[in-house]
Amino acid sequence: MKQLKSVILFIVLLMTASACSNANSTTGSEQSETPGDQELNEPANKEGADNEEEGREETGKLVIYTSGSKDLAEKLIEGFEEKTGINVDMFEGTTGQILGRLEAEENNPLADVVVLASLPPAMEYKEKGLILPYESPYASQLHDGWYDEAYYYYGFSASALGLSYNTKLVDTPPADWADLLDEQYKGLLAIPDPTESGTARDFIAAYINQEGEAGWELYRDLKANGLKLGGANNPALASVISGTNSVVMAGVDYMVYSSKENGEPVDIVFPESGTTITPRPAFILESANNITSAQQYIDYILSDEGQQIVAEAYLLPARTDIEPHESRAPLSDIKELNYDWGFLEENTSSILDEFMNLVR
């Protein structure tokens, strides 16, 4: 009997040692040869990173749903794949398209990481318990208000909205939103469709947040002066470049800077009364399979390398220590409207319905 007890004790000790060894082992994809890689490959916050405990296994391919620009997304993914050896499967679309796809896949979620061009949907996803928090080591280096304090999402870049105009058709650009009521712009005005553009949706609600009824009065007057929907941000800007419209209000700045650099007759001014600066949130879905890889991607887009790629795309970097592109207006030169993201999250839907009824 004593011999049997000894055998059983030996087996238990052996199983315990084996389990500890497996728990502390590291896969080849997590190993690193340089300090920079180590920072990406070993997320500082392990909460939620143990896929085995969650009953999930890394699939070998990180799935990312991202809003434009496509060129920026591809460069970030290319750099991430080269840095980590992790393969990425990307779906790129507008914020509206991504949200629609996520809703359609609600019962069978596929994405690991989501990147949007509008902050309120990320806030809503957090409230619904659909985001897995992750504290990146870069969080303390980001602009205040650009990320969730509980680390549910990170605005890794931002775009400012302005008055995009054709330099061949407009000699003196409008200085503020109300200047678009001038006769010279009648029938030559557009705004990105807020059902397709998250940034335009944010602006429409933010302007009402600041101006109240006076904001609705401006929208009605702009409609009377020929304001029309221009589709998503790209086709809206294309209408200015082609001369179909003279001005697009609430156009995203980075697209204008890029087009201007390519020799197109377009430029942008930021209204004197203020505009919106929209952090572009990236977050990990609570349903993600590839949690560790997803955390590595968040770290990468916030890293020195990732933020330089953001700056080269004419977007505003999230890091306070990374300078924006020399050809674009710095954050300090852009006046913001007085708005609250909580107000936008709560009221944008009803404001959007009223706006669409007005301009359609």
Automatic annotation (TrEMBL):
InterPro entries: Ferric-bd
Keywords, alphabetical: Iron, Metal-binding, Signal
GO cellular component terms given for this protein: outer membrane-bounded periplasmic space
GO BP terms in the entry: thiamine transport
Positions bound to Fe cation: 254
Compositional bias per record (Polar residues), positions renumbered to this chain: 22-35
Listed name of the protein: Iron(III) transport system substrate-binding protein
Classification lineage: Bacteria, Bacillati, Bacillota, Bacilli, Bacillales
PROSITE patterns for the chain: PROKAR_LIPOPROTEIN
Provenance organism: Evansella caseinilytica
Region Disordered, annotated ranges: 22-59
Gene3D superfamilies per record: Periplasmic binding protein-like II
Signal peptide: 1-23
GO molecular function, one term: thiamine pyrophosphate binding
